[in-house]
Amino acid sequence: xxxxxxxxxxxxxxxxxxxxxCVQKSKYEVALAxxxxxxxxxxxxxxxxxxxxxxxxxxxxAREEALAQIDSLINRLKALNQDVRNLEEERSQLSMDxxxxxxxxxxxxxxxxxxxARIDTFRRLLDRFRSMIESGQVEVKVERGRMxxxxxxxxxxxxxxxxxxxxxxxxxxxxGQVLAEIPDRSFQVEGHTDDQPIKTARFPSNWxxxxxxxxxxVKFMVDQGMPAGRISASGFAEFQxxxxxxxxxxxxxxxxxxxxxxxxxxxxxxxxxxxGAEQAAPAAD
Length: 285
Hints:
Number of strands: 5
CATH architecture of the largest domain: 2-Layer Sandwich
Largest sheet: 5 strands, mixed
CATH class of the largest domain: Alpha Beta
Helix content: 55-70%
Strand order of the largest sheet: 1-2-5-3-4
Number of domains: 2
Protein backbone atom coordinates (compact mmCIF):
# COMPACT_ATOMS: atom_id res chain seq x y z
CA UNK A 1 0.00 0.00 0.00
CA UNK A 2 1.28 3.46 -0.90
CA UNK A 3 2.27 5.57 2.12
CA UNK A 4 1.12 8.81 0.53
CA UNK A 5 -2.43 7.46 -0.10
CA UNK A 6 -2.70 6.27 3.49
CA UNK A 7 -1.78 9.66 4.87
CA UNK A 8 -4.25 11.45 2.58
CA UNK A 9 -7.12 9.18 3.64
CA UNK A 10 -6.39 9.75 7.31
CA UNK A 11 -6.35 13.51 6.85
CA UNK A 12 -9.75 13.39 5.07
CA UNK A 13 -11.37 11.44 7.92
CA UNK A 14 -10.06 13.86 10.56
CA UNK A 15 -11.25 16.82 8.57
CA UNK A 16 -14.74 15.33 8.21
CA UNK A 17 -15.05 14.73 11.94
CA UNK A 18 -13.96 18.24 12.78
CA UNK A 19 -16.39 19.71 10.28
CA UNK A 20 -19.47 17.94 11.64
CA UNK A 21 -18.89 19.05 15.22
CA CYS A 22 -20.90 16.78 17.43
CA VAL A 23 -21.51 13.32 16.11
CA GLN A 24 -23.04 10.33 17.52
CA LYS A 25 -20.85 8.23 19.75
CA SER A 26 -21.04 5.22 17.46
CA LYS A 27 -19.93 7.22 14.47
CA TYR A 28 -17.09 8.69 16.53
CA GLU A 29 -15.91 5.30 17.54
CA VAL A 30 -16.17 4.14 14.00
CA ALA A 31 -14.06 7.10 12.94
CA LEU A 32 -11.50 6.36 15.65
CA ALA A 33 -11.38 2.77 14.47
CA UNK A 34 -10.89 3.94 10.92
CA UNK A 35 -8.11 6.25 12.07
CA UNK A 36 -6.48 3.42 13.98
CA UNK A 37 -6.79 1.23 10.92
CA UNK A 38 -5.32 3.97 8.81
CA UNK A 39 -2.45 4.32 11.27
CA UNK A 40 -1.86 0.60 11.01
CA UNK A 41 -1.99 0.87 7.26
CA UNK A 42 0.47 3.77 7.35
CA UNK A 43 2.79 1.76 9.59
CA UNK A 44 2.47 -1.20 7.27
CA UNK A 45 3.23 1.03 4.31
CA UNK A 46 6.27 2.41 6.07
CA UNK A 47 7.46 -1.09 6.93
CA UNK A 48 6.82 -2.19 3.38
CA UNK A 49 8.72 0.80 2.03
CA UNK A 50 11.62 0.10 4.37
CA UNK A 51 11.64 -3.50 3.18
CA UNK A 52 11.56 -2.33 -0.40
CA UNK A 53 14.43 0.01 0.37
CA UNK A 54 16.42 -2.83 1.83
CA UNK A 55 15.55 -5.02 -1.14
CA UNK A 56 16.53 -2.20 -3.47
CA UNK A 57 19.86 -1.87 -1.67
CA UNK A 58 20.36 -5.58 -1.99
CA UNK A 59 19.49 -5.36 -5.68
CA UNK A 60 21.92 -2.52 -6.17
CA UNK A 61 24.61 -4.46 -4.32
CA ALA A 62 23.88 -7.58 -6.35
CA ARG A 63 23.90 -5.50 -9.56
CA GLU A 64 27.28 -3.95 -8.67
CA GLU A 65 28.65 -7.38 -7.79
CA ALA A 66 27.34 -8.79 -11.08
CA LEU A 67 28.86 -5.89 -13.02
CA ALA A 68 32.16 -6.42 -11.23
CA GLN A 69 32.06 -10.11 -12.15
CA ILE A 70 31.25 -9.21 -15.74
CA ASP A 71 34.19 -6.78 -15.85
CA SER A 72 36.41 -9.47 -14.36
CA LEU A 73 35.24 -11.96 -16.98
CA ILE A 74 35.82 -9.42 -19.75
CA ASN A 75 39.36 -8.80 -18.52
CA ARG A 76 39.99 -12.55 -18.29
CA LEU A 77 38.62 -13.02 -21.81
CA LYS A 78 40.88 -10.24 -23.07
CA ALA A 79 43.85 -11.88 -21.36
CA LEU A 80 42.87 -15.28 -22.73
CA ASN A 81 42.50 -13.81 -26.20
CA GLN A 82 45.96 -12.30 -25.89
CA ASP A 83 47.29 -15.64 -24.65
CA VAL A 84 45.66 -17.35 -27.64
CA ARG A 85 47.31 -14.89 -30.03
CA ASN A 86 50.66 -15.42 -28.30
CA LEU A 87 50.22 -19.18 -28.50
CA GLU A 88 49.33 -18.95 -32.18
CA GLU A 89 52.43 -16.86 -32.84
CA GLU A 90 54.59 -19.31 -30.88
CA ARG A 91 53.05 -22.22 -32.79
CA SER A 92 53.75 -20.49 -36.09
CA GLN A 93 57.36 -19.82 -35.05
CA LEU A 94 57.82 -23.38 -33.85
CA SER A 95 56.43 -24.67 -37.13
CA MET A 96 58.90 -22.51 -39.06
CA ASP A 97 61.78 -23.60 -36.81
CA UNK A 98 60.80 -27.26 -37.29
CA UNK A 99 60.64 -26.85 -41.05
CA UNK A 100 64.07 -25.20 -41.09
CA UNK A 101 65.50 -27.93 -38.84
CA UNK A 102 64.09 -30.63 -41.12
CA UNK A 103 65.52 -28.83 -44.15
CA UNK A 104 68.95 -28.62 -42.48
CA UNK A 105 68.75 -32.28 -41.53
CA UNK A 106 67.94 -33.24 -45.13
CA UNK A 107 70.80 -31.07 -46.39
CA UNK A 108 73.21 -32.60 -43.87
CA UNK A 109 72.15 -36.08 -44.91
CA UNK A 110 72.63 -35.15 -48.57
CA UNK A 111 76.07 -33.72 -47.85
CA UNK A 112 76.94 -36.85 -45.88
CA UNK A 113 75.98 -39.06 -48.81
CA UNK A 114 77.93 -36.86 -51.24
CA UNK A 115 80.97 -36.93 -48.94
CA UNK A 116 80.78 -40.71 -48.78
CA ALA A 117 80.54 -40.83 -52.58
CA ARG A 118 83.67 -38.64 -52.85
CA ILE A 119 85.50 -40.91 -50.41
CA ASP A 120 84.52 -43.96 -52.46
CA THR A 121 85.71 -42.24 -55.64
CA PHE A 122 89.00 -41.31 -54.00
CA ARG A 123 89.55 -44.90 -52.87
CA ARG A 124 88.91 -46.17 -56.39
CA LEU A 125 91.39 -43.65 -57.76
CA LEU A 126 94.02 -44.75 -55.27
CA ASP A 127 93.51 -48.35 -56.31
CA ARG A 128 93.69 -47.53 -60.03
CA PHE A 129 96.73 -45.27 -59.63
CA ARG A 130 98.53 -47.52 -57.15
CA SER A 131 101.24 -48.68 -59.53
CA MET A 132 101.84 -45.16 -60.84
CA ILE A 133 101.99 -43.82 -57.28
CA GLU A 134 104.51 -46.49 -56.26
CA SER A 135 106.67 -45.70 -59.30
CA GLY A 136 106.67 -41.98 -58.43
CA GLN A 137 104.92 -40.90 -61.62
CA VAL A 138 101.94 -39.34 -59.83
CA GLU A 139 100.64 -38.44 -56.41
CA VAL A 140 96.96 -38.58 -55.49
CA LYS A 141 96.00 -36.28 -52.64
CA VAL A 142 93.10 -34.37 -51.13
CA GLU A 143 93.91 -30.67 -50.93
CA ARG A 144 91.44 -27.98 -49.85
CA GLY A 145 88.62 -30.49 -50.12
CA ARG A 146 89.56 -31.42 -53.70
CA MET A 147 90.95 -34.65 -55.09
CA UNK A 148 94.13 -33.89 -56.98
CA UNK A 149 96.29 -36.01 -59.30
CA UNK A 150 99.73 -34.40 -59.17
CA UNK A 151 102.58 -34.90 -61.69
CA UNK A 152 106.04 -33.33 -61.60
CA UNK A 153 106.72 -31.18 -64.64
CA UNK A 154 109.96 -33.04 -65.27
CA UNK A 155 107.97 -36.12 -66.39
CA UNK A 156 105.97 -34.07 -68.88
CA UNK A 157 108.21 -31.21 -70.07
CA UNK A 158 111.79 -30.17 -70.54
CA UNK A 159 112.83 -26.94 -68.80
CA UNK A 160 111.07 -23.91 -70.29
CA UNK A 161 109.25 -26.06 -72.88
CA UNK A 162 105.61 -27.01 -73.48
CA UNK A 163 106.09 -30.02 -75.75
CA UNK A 164 104.97 -33.15 -73.90
CA UNK A 165 107.69 -35.80 -73.68
CA UNK A 166 107.07 -39.43 -74.61
CA UNK A 167 107.14 -40.52 -70.99
CA UNK A 168 104.68 -37.77 -70.16
CA UNK A 169 102.29 -38.87 -72.92
CA UNK A 170 102.29 -42.40 -71.53
CA UNK A 171 101.49 -41.12 -68.03
CA UNK A 172 98.74 -38.81 -69.31
CA UNK A 173 97.19 -41.60 -71.36
CA UNK A 174 96.89 -43.83 -68.31
CA UNK A 175 95.54 -40.95 -66.21
CA GLY A 176 92.96 -40.10 -68.87
CA GLN A 177 91.77 -43.71 -69.01
CA VAL A 178 91.15 -43.75 -65.26
CA LEU A 179 89.47 -40.33 -65.12
CA ALA A 180 87.22 -41.10 -68.05
CA GLU A 181 85.67 -43.89 -65.98
CA ILE A 182 84.39 -41.40 -63.40
CA PRO A 183 80.90 -40.45 -64.61
CA ASP A 184 79.50 -36.92 -64.55
CA ARG A 185 82.74 -35.31 -63.44
CA SER A 186 84.63 -32.32 -64.75
CA PHE A 187 88.37 -31.82 -64.40
CA GLN A 188 90.69 -28.84 -64.40
CA VAL A 189 94.34 -29.08 -65.39
CA GLU A 190 96.44 -26.58 -63.42
CA GLY A 191 99.94 -25.51 -64.35
CA HIS A 192 102.38 -24.40 -61.61
CA THR A 193 105.97 -23.14 -61.74
CA ASP A 194 108.66 -22.30 -59.20
CA ASP A 195 109.60 -18.72 -58.37
CA GLN A 196 112.40 -18.49 -60.92
CA PRO A 197 111.29 -15.91 -63.54
CA ILE A 198 111.22 -16.67 -67.25
CA LYS A 199 111.32 -14.00 -69.92
CA THR A 200 111.31 -15.13 -73.52
CA ALA A 201 109.51 -13.93 -76.61
CA ARG A 202 106.92 -16.72 -76.22
CA PHE A 203 106.72 -16.67 -72.43
CA PRO A 204 107.14 -13.17 -70.99
CA SER A 205 106.43 -14.57 -67.48
CA ASN A 206 105.57 -17.75 -65.62
CA TRP A 207 101.89 -17.00 -66.18
CA UNK A 208 102.19 -17.74 -69.87
CA UNK A 209 104.38 -20.79 -69.28
CA UNK A 210 102.12 -22.41 -66.68
CA UNK A 211 98.97 -21.73 -68.73
CA UNK A 212 100.51 -23.02 -71.96
CA UNK A 213 101.61 -26.28 -70.29
CA UNK A 214 98.14 -26.84 -68.79
CA UNK A 215 96.60 -26.18 -72.20
CA UNK A 216 98.88 -28.70 -73.92
CA UNK A 217 97.90 -31.36 -71.36
CA VAL A 218 94.20 -30.65 -71.94
CA LYS A 219 94.58 -30.87 -75.71
CA PHE A 220 96.44 -34.17 -75.44
CA MET A 221 93.84 -35.71 -73.08
CA VAL A 222 90.99 -34.60 -75.37
CA ASP A 223 92.81 -36.20 -78.30
CA GLN A 224 92.95 -39.40 -76.22
CA GLY A 225 89.16 -39.44 -75.74
CA MET A 226 88.44 -37.16 -72.79
CA PRO A 227 85.21 -35.21 -73.54
CA ALA A 228 86.23 -31.61 -74.22
CA GLY A 229 83.30 -30.27 -72.21
CA ARG A 230 84.54 -31.99 -69.07
CA ILE A 231 88.08 -30.57 -68.92
CA SER A 232 89.61 -27.10 -68.71
CA ALA A 233 93.03 -25.47 -68.30
CA SER A 234 94.39 -22.81 -65.95
CA GLY A 235 97.79 -21.43 -64.99
CA PHE A 236 98.90 -20.23 -61.54
CA ALA A 237 102.54 -19.40 -62.27
CA GLU A 238 104.55 -19.43 -59.01
CA PHE A 239 101.75 -18.14 -56.78
CA GLN A 240 100.48 -21.43 -55.35
CA UNK A 241 103.68 -23.21 -54.26
CA UNK A 242 103.36 -26.71 -52.86
CA UNK A 243 106.39 -26.13 -50.61
CA UNK A 244 108.56 -23.05 -49.97
CA UNK A 245 110.87 -22.16 -52.86
CA UNK A 246 113.95 -22.34 -50.63
CA UNK A 247 116.11 -24.79 -52.55
CA UNK A 248 116.49 -26.79 -55.77
CA UNK A 249 114.60 -29.82 -54.50
CA UNK A 250 111.60 -27.78 -53.34
CA UNK A 251 111.55 -25.75 -56.55
CA UNK A 252 111.39 -29.03 -58.46
CA UNK A 253 108.36 -30.05 -56.38
CA UNK A 254 106.64 -26.75 -57.16
CA UNK A 255 107.07 -27.22 -60.91
CA UNK A 256 104.08 -29.47 -61.46
CA UNK A 257 100.87 -30.23 -63.32
CA UNK A 258 97.76 -31.04 -61.30
CA UNK A 259 94.51 -32.56 -62.51
CA UNK A 260 91.74 -31.53 -60.12
CA UNK A 261 88.39 -33.29 -59.83
CA UNK A 262 85.95 -30.41 -59.69
CA UNK A 263 82.90 -30.68 -57.42
CA UNK A 264 79.55 -31.16 -59.07
CA UNK A 265 77.04 -28.36 -58.66
CA UNK A 266 74.77 -30.56 -56.54
CA UNK A 267 77.64 -31.04 -54.06
CA UNK A 268 77.80 -27.32 -53.34
CA UNK A 269 75.70 -25.73 -50.55
CA UNK A 270 72.32 -24.44 -51.63
CA UNK A 271 72.64 -20.64 -51.56
CA UNK A 272 69.23 -19.89 -53.10
CA UNK A 273 67.84 -18.93 -49.66
CA UNK A 274 70.57 -16.29 -49.31
CA UNK A 275 69.79 -14.91 -52.75
CA GLY A 276 66.09 -14.76 -51.86
CA ALA A 277 66.85 -12.99 -48.59
CA GLU A 278 69.08 -10.49 -50.39
CA GLN A 279 66.35 -9.73 -52.93
CA ALA A 280 63.71 -9.40 -50.20
CA ALA A 281 65.85 -7.05 -48.08
CA PRO A 282 65.05 -3.32 -48.55
CA ALA A 283 67.65 -1.29 -50.34
CA ALA A 284 69.88 0.75 -48.05
CA ASP A 285 69.53 4.52 -48.19
